[in-house]
Amino acid sequence: MSSIKIELRNEDVAKIKEICTSFNNDPQELINVLHSCQEHFGYLPAEVQEVISGELVVPVAKIYGVVTFYSFFTMTPKGKHPISICLGTACYVRGAEKVLEEFKKELGLNVGQVTKDNKFSLSSLRCVGACGLAPVVLVGDKTYGRVAPDDVRNIIKEYD
Amino acid sequence: METIKLTIDTKEVEVPKGTTINKAAKKLGIDIPTLCYMELKDMNIENKPGGCRLCVVEVQKRRNLAPSCSTNCEEGMVILTHTPRVLNARRTVMEFILSDHPKDCLVCPKSGNCELQSMAHRLGIRDIPGQEYAEMSTYRKDFSPSIIRDLDKCIMCRRCETMCNTVQTVGALSAVNRGFMAAVAPAFEQNLEFSTCTYCGQCVAVCPTGALTEVNHVPNVLRALADPTKTVIVQTAPAVRAALGEMFGMKPGTLVTGKMVTALRSLGFNYIFDTDFAADLTIMEEGTEFLDRLNRHLKGDKTARMPILTSCCPGWVNFFEEYFPDLKDVPSTSKSPQQMFGAIAKTYFADKIKVDRKDLVVVSIMPCLAKKYECQREEFSTDGNRDVDFSISTRELGEFIKQANIDLNNLEEGEFDDPMGESTGAGVIFGTTGGVIEAAVRTAYELQTGKKLERLDFTELRGLKGVRSATIDFDGLPINIGIAHGLGNARKLLDDVRAGKSQFHAIEVMACPGGCIGGGGQPLHHGNSEIIKARAAAIYAEDKSKPLRKSHENPFIIKLYKEFLDKPNSEKAHHLLHTKYFDKKKKIIVKQ
Asked: Are residues A88 and A153 in the same domain?
């Protein structure tokens, strides 16, 4: 029996409802609704999924299934400066994994985590379409190309 | 209808357009193996994810092998189902599935009844190449009051997901994550207990492996039986007698009422009683409540809501508490037969045999997994002592009987004990969809009209159609009756009630497709709906064979009211035999 209590602010609930309404509360639009909500909140916490479930009349288990299937969706908040390391084929063969390891070490984070001060979050992705610059790192909207493990400390410093 | 001719394994076959290859093959008697595909014929239930890939066949002039469960037949197709290429592919698929499956078959609860195990046997798999270094996915176990999830054994066939979502519309289970992390789980991977699960057990009923099983209460029962300070009594639900025999190799639909009683006596129960007795009692209470509401409604009393909904089925009760809490005053307040039995056993019967209720252990044998949860509900206890202590399923009873070295086949026919073992045919048909309402009609008609019912078989209320309706003539007063089995079908009727569009006076709902005979605790049907039909026929046959077939004629029910309860819906009856429902819908709390 469901016993999980959900806490959200009034304006958050109103925003989710507004997003759902803009897609006519159509269950077929679930992925678009999730996109819009993630754009607004930065991530898709359980509470948000619960409200969407009520609006679109889709079981929340299904919504969770979709959120966990697509790597774009995340249930953990992003940091102020989200760092993404491309692990696409080109970046991978040019040493992206070592770069990722260096970020993990420097920030003390695993993929999907956020620093305690909410400043940085770490994620990996598959191909940003800039294979000529491999390996590629994104920090927020800024792209760094041909990143070597030695560059990592300097990149982080830029945001201190 | 447009038809198509094709050839399968050199045999010609003609099928309607839109038929899949596996169904066309079946028509020729060719049984193409599958693990994920499942169809319950005539019950509108099909699981067709095309996921396991065991059913691949070779289609001439096609480059790739085709999954026969999800490939439609085409004119002139030439199909081969057992070429070396097909058999190799099948073996490889099976080896991959097995490489990520625990190898603890010897001690698995599904051993001997596992479709994966039989498939490995059937395909002649003798080795799992690479199993020493192959990665295995692992997942924590989840124990709920009724169901155990052990997803290490899940093969992602998605049958449970289909039952939970498409058939039952409960939406507790969904495929989550991907790759090795993929699992079927409730939202946010919480335990089942905190999901919208109703414990109907239909996921367990269709699971091909040991991933979903019931919580086993046989050890508790065994301990109680061995305790000399306890008096242990047992009640058996109507659907159990129509299915238990299957576990001992008997033909589906074989009635084993008498043999089951003898087996229970050999197991050491002090009194063998029948839930059918409590079903008769339910009819007295629910029927009286119905007539009271109906007559007040006919007089224009706005507080008398129509329709009345049956409340015997715990999966169904869980469902409306979760999804229709705004309608919680619509169902009958009558407890289920299991709980009525417990309430009477621990008061009336305990007094009669001068045993303190704490020393009286009530065990129920149920075709159901939700009953395990129901008997644990707080409102069904007095001072922490449950009215029904343990509920075990038909499957658990079968295993228990085997462990006790009893062969059901060779037992004499026994008789239930008095006073709670006597029942009418009306009590028996509680086990199948339409049965509760038919039993109610038999009694309500006579109580309302004061006339004797001419015919007792209301065939218009029977059958396997998901939603059924009939109008019964109560001596000039037409009574509209609705029936739904399967929670998805129930939802349709409930939506109408919520919208104020329902024309029914009474609606019967059973959570499981087919009713209790298709319950989550029954011997596994492995996708064969003929088994469920055979059980229904057995139930109606038992009804027909009974000298008394109307609940209000049960002499022990009459005696119970005379000695103890006074009359149906009396104050005492209300206290012992009625309950209330709770709003269990998840609340969204808004922070200011």
From this structure: yes
pLDDT in tens, B345-355: 999 999 999 99
Q: Do residues A65 and A88 both lie within one domain?
A: no
> For A13, which of B170, B175, B590 is closest by C-beta distance?
B590
Prior bond to B129 cis, omega within 30? no
Q: Could you list the residue range(s) of the whole structural domain that residue A23 is in?
A: 10-69
What is the ipTM score, two decimals? 0.88
pLDDT for res A1? 40
Answer positive or negative: Cα dihedral of B307, B313, B314, B319: negative
CA dist B336 to A4, B305, B320, B333, B343, Å? 28, 21, 15, 9, 11
Q: Is residue B582 part of a domain?
A: no
Q: Any idea of the CA torsion for A110, A112, A117, A119, to the nearest 10 degrees?
A: 110
B289 annotated active-site = yes
Q: For chain A, list residues whose CB is within 8 angstroms of any CB belonging to chain B.
A: 1-10, 13, 46-47, 49-51, 54, 58-65, 68-69
Residue type for position B234: V
Q: B150 vs chain A: nearest CA distance in angstroms?
A: 18
- Residue B341 identity (one-letter amino acid): F
Phi, psi at B307, each rounded to 5°: -80, 170
Q: What share of chain B is helix, strand, coil (3-state, %, to 5)?
A: 40, 15, 40
- The structural domain count of chain A equals 2
pLDDT tens for each residue of B155-177: 999 999 999 999 999 999 999 99
User: Shortest Cα distance from A71 to chain B (angstroms)?
Assistant: 9
Backbone angles phi, psi at B10, to 5 degrees: 70, 0
Domains in chain B, number: 3
CATH number, residue B48 = 3.10.20.740
State both tokens at B372: 């395990």
Query: Is position A1 within any domain?
Result: no
User: In this predicted structure, what is the pLDDT of residue B441?
Assistant: 96
Contact: B176, A65; criterion CB under 8 Å: yes
Out of B371, B372, B533, B550, pick the active-site residue.
B371
Same domain, residue pair B57 and B113: no
Distance from CA of B442 to the nearest CA of A (A): 36
Residues B176 and B245 in one domain: no
Residues A64, A15 share a domain: yes
Kindly report the pTM of this predicted structure.
Answer: 0.91
Q: Is the domain of A18 the same as that of A85?
A: no
Is position B379 annotated as part of the catalytic site?
yes
List C-alpha distances in Å: B53 to B124, B155, B162, B212, B533.
17, 12, 18, 22, 30
Does residue A76 fall inside a structural domain?
no
Q: Residue B140 half-sphere exposure, CB side, CA atoms within 13 Å? A: 6
